[in-house]
Specification:
The chain has 601 residues and is an alpha+beta fold. It is built from 19 helices and 17 strands. The strands form 5 sheets. Strands 5, 6, 8, 9, 14 and 15 form a 6-stranded mixed sheet that branches. Strands 7, 10, 11, 12 and 13 form a 5-stranded antiparallel sheet that branches. Strands 1-4 form a two-stranded parallel sheet. Strand 16 and strand 17 form a beta hairpin. The longest helix is centred in the C-terminal third of the chain and has 50 residues. The radius of gyration is 35 Å and the shape is elongated. The two termini are 51 Å apart.
């Protein structure tokens, strides 16, 4: 049966539910997968994780049910893509865990609201990530269109695997057949397939986003290789059709280098490539000396002196932009060209290699600090430095006793950014962000003075648009909550009607009709079923139905056939006893017959 039979287990009411991790950690063991889920595909391969839905246990036998996982599964049940006939069984399974935990089988309003809010948030994030991936694919395909048909075939194959939901196994075969061993791409597709049923888990949606970025980076690597092959076949002719900037932040070189294409190199203070400012104030001409990078291990891999000496001056020429901090992944996706308000300066000469530089061997340059950032650089010079953003090539290897990505070439310098040193305290970080904000504010102030009316109108229009978006989002959330409450109230109403009618001896057809009609007209108060009013409604409906059955059977008082004999005494007790006996002859039990007799008076 697709709905997995309910089972009594302990229930964990405190632990955070990490659905994607639970699925990822689970072995391809049908016994464990069956235990941790509430539904399995009737015609699926039960050794595959994709054949299951609604996980709520950790991946081991006898693990407690996680109440957050149970609630999320209940909230997703109404819109889940499973046969309608399976929903009751799944709901019974999940509600059993709530009962075992001493909770009401129906979720509270707060629990429903939380679950709906998380699912809505997760859906929005999934949609945004999917849009970014497909936009990146579109842009990279445009670059490949100028090359040969064979290269286009490879680009279309990648698109097919994403859009047509090719299985990981098929992707592996096609990759090996058409492109060689691209195991990294198949790995990413396999991870996406494995987690597809848990993509709406809000707390770990970042894991899904990372995998999506991995797919985008894999595509970029493949297109870069196609581009290189195309240049050779076209005799070096390169008529670009669009920006080479990636549409999204990419995964680390350690994961991406198997694609044999370019990888993004973003150094961080924590990674060991934080270069402190060499002087503690801006020079009188508005410049500062900068050590760009030195040989050694960084967060992206190992940089040798040979690579920095050979490629550094080419990729970090005069005019290289310097921004205030690296962009976040979301900022990179939304605005890959960067925000002008974050532009803190530019280099005034080509980067140069110095074996005996003032701060040791490395790449050096001088930078012009823009006016809006001069005071910030002066004030925080002891606590800030620079790190690079670049594109390069890497291969796995070892250096200085460590194993990891070895940077074999720098192919493009994107920027040299001001960053805080690793471990900088909260006060410095706050000042650092405040400098960015004040720079943006100053730029806005200048613009306001020039075009005050236009700026005010634009701001008002944007504010109203944002307000409208928030109103629509709030209305959608309220609608989702109302739908969920309505569905739960309907289910609870059916249960109450069924339980009430089980005690009354009336025909099955009558019971079915009453269950259907009463559950649809159940009274709701403050978003929940009004049980007292509903029970009274059920009682009245039963009395009316019994009255109808009695009259239909010809047992009611005969009227319209002449006058009733006057003066004849009416014995109420005897009449009630007679009616009770008549109802009993119809098959009603004693209690039901008594109710029916009283209803006839």
């Amino acid at each position: 049966m697709p709905a997995i039979k309910s089972h009594k287990t302990a229930v964990d009411l405190k632990s955070k539910w990490d659905g994607p991790k639970a699925v990822a950690d689970a072995p391809n063991d049908s016994k464990i997968l069956n235990y941790m889920h509430a539904w399995e595909a009737a015609d699926g391969d039960l050794t595959k994780k994709s054949a299951y839905k609604f996980p709520h246990h950790e991946p081991k036998m006898d693990a407690a049910a996680n109440i957050a996982g149970v609630n999320n599964a209940l909230a997703r049940l109404a819109d889940a893509k499973i046969p309608d006939g399976d929903r009751v069984g799944v709901e019974t399974h999940l509600r059993r865990h709530r009962k075992d935990a001493g909770l009401k089988e129906s979720m509270s309003e707060a629990e429903i609201a939380d679950a709906v809010k998380y699912i809505k948030r997760a859906d929005d994030l999934k949609s945004a990530e999917a849009s970014n991936v497909m936009e990146g694919l579109r842009r990279q395909e445009m670059k490949a269109r100028k090359y040969s048909g064979a290269i286009m075939k490879r680009a279309k194959l990648i698109e097919y695997m994403l859009q047509e939901a090719m299985s990981p196994e098929q992707a592996e075969i096609c990759c090996q057949k058409e492109m060689g061993d691209i195991s990294q791409g198949a790995y990413v597709l396999q991870q996406l397939s494995m987690l597809q049923n848990e993509a709406d888990e809000p707390d770990d949606i970042s894991e899904i986003a990372d995998l999506m970025r991995g797919v985008c980076n894999w595509i970029m690597g493949e297109i870069d290789e196609m581009e290189a092959a195309g240049k050779q076949s076209a005799g070096g002719d390169d008529e670009g059709t669009g920006s080479d900037e990636p549409a999204m932040a990419t995964m680390s070189p350690a994961m991406a280098m198997e694609s044999r294409g370019s990888v993004e190199l973003i150094e961080s203070a924590a990674g060991g490539m934080f270069m402190p400012l060499m002087e503690k104030s801006v020079r009188s001409d508005g410049t500062v000396p900068v050590k760009v990078i030195q040989p050694g291990w960084g967060s992206s891999g190992f940089y040798s002196a040979e690579v920095l000496k050979r490629d550094g001056p080419k990729v970090f020429p005069k005019g290289t932009k310097m921004y205030w901090n690296h962009p976040t992944p979301s900022q990179e996706a939304e605005r890959p060209e960067r925000d002008l308000n974050d532009l803190a300066g530019v280099t005034v000469n080509d980067a140069r290699w110095l074996d005996n530089g003032p701060a040791g061997p490395g790449l050096y340059t001088d930078a012009q600090v823009f006016e809006s950032y001069k005071s910030a650089v002066d004030d925080m010079a002891k606590h800030i430095g620079v790190s690079i953003r670049a594109m390069g090539q890497a291969e796995n290897g070892s250096a200085d006793g460590r194993q990891g990505p070895i940077i074999t070439a720098l192919t493009q310098g994107r920027s040299i950014d001001y960053v805080t040193e690793a471990g900088a305290g909260g006060e410095i970080l706050g000042l650092f962000e405040a400098a960015r904000s004040s720079s943006a504010a100053r730029a806005a102030e200048v613009a306001d003075k020039k075009t005050t009316s236009t700026s005010v109108a634009t701001f008002t229009e944007e504010a109203m648009a944002e307000y409208k978006n928030l109103e629509e989002a709030n209305a959608a959330l309220k609608n989702d909550l109302a739908r969920a409450q309505e569905a739960l109230a309907l289910r609870e109403a059916k249960d109450i009607v069924g339980a009430s009618l089980a005690k009354i001896n009336v025909p099955d057809a009558t019971k079915t009709r009453l269950i259907e009609s009463l559950s649809k007209s159940a009274p709701v108060k403050d978003g929940a079923l009004d049980k007292d009013a509903f029970k009274a409604q059920i009682e009245e409906a039963v009395k009316a139905e019994v009255k109808y059955l009695v009259e239909a059977a010809g047992m009611g008082q005969i009227r319209g056939m002449g006058e009733t004999v006057k003066g004849e005494e009416f014995n109420e007790a005897e009449a009630e006893e007679t009616l009770m006996q008549a109802f009993a002859d119809m098959g009603l039990n004693e209690s039901t017959a008594k109710i029916a007799a009283k209803g006839r008076k």
